[in-house]
Write a structure and sequence with these properties.
13 strands; zinc ion binding; zinc-finger; Znf_FYVE_PHD; zinc; two-stranded antiparallel sheet; about 240 residues; metal-binding; elongated; PH-domain like
């Protein structure tokens, strides 16, 4: 499936121009759907400051949440790559702050994930490990593992993820799902602990049985640690997109 061409098309929605995959089934797992706008007839006042709309005070919809605001409360245009908008779009103050924080992921962490890192990879309970390069696919839907062999893990089929740090040993109670990973203390940028590995549980294509995959930083531990920290950021967006 990862070999399917990632053709894109330009579409116009009420919110603006969007560059989306030709086949909607191949959307990035980080992407969000456009919200339903609150109907004009149901919104007579700004949903932030309660100002009443009239001929002078016009109503505007936030492109991220779909709620209705006056110009003062929804005047800023902010980039929103998670909805594939070509240009910055109008957002309320709350959504604009969230979108600005997410831009760090697209500007920095995503590039790190695409660049890859080198890890010692162990599948299941096997005694055999292999040094492999792990990177995110260009369509953001797979983790590619390349060494003497090659295999892929689809992000949508990952059920749990644990980021390991130096000195931390995994246990049954230490598995971090996407939910708890958002507040995990296992990765702290600029902190004293450094990410040293990752433990994944996922379902291979065509199977309903979960398999374990363990990754430990190989020679270039700094690059591997940065890659793991970026994956930690990605997990938060994956969880949010699933929960939409």
């Amino acid at each position: 499936m990862s070999s399917v061409p990632d053709g894109k098309k330009l579409v116009r929605s009420p919110s603006g121009l969007r560059m989306v995959p030709e086949n909607g089934a191949f959307n990035s797992p980080f992407s969000l759907d456009e919200p339903q706008w609150v109907p004009d007839k149901e919104c007579s006042r700004c949903m932030q400051c309660d100002t009443k709309f009239d001929f002078i005070r016009r109503k505007h919809h936030c492109r991220r949440c779909g709620r209705c605001f006056c110009d003062k409360c929804c005047s800023k245009k902010v980039a929103l790559p998670r909805m594939c908008f070509v240009d910055p779009v109008r957002q309320c103050a709350e959504c604009g702050l969230v979108s600005q924080k997410e831009m760090e992921f697209y500007d920095k962490q995503l590039k790190v994930l695409l660049g890859g890192g080198t890890f010692v990879v162990t599948l299941g309970s096997s005694d055999r490990s292999e040094t492999m390069t792990c990177r995110l696919s260009n369509n953001h839907r797979y983790l590619f593992f390349d060494g003497e062999t090659h295999f892929e893990v689809e992000l949508s089929r990952i059920s749990s993820m644990q980021i390991l740090t130096d000195g931390a040993s995994p246990g049954e109670n230490d598995i971090h799902t996407y939910t708890s990973l958002m507040d995990s203390h296992y990765v702290s940028e600029g902190g004293t602990s450094r990410a040293s590995g990752m433990l994944l549980h996922y379902k291979p294509m065509g199977s309903q049985d979960a398999q374990q995959l363990r990754m430990e930083a190989a020679d270039d531990k700094k690059v591997a640690s940065l890659w793991l920290a970026a994956m930690h950021k990605a997990a938060k967006l994956l969880y949010e997109a699933r929960d939409q």
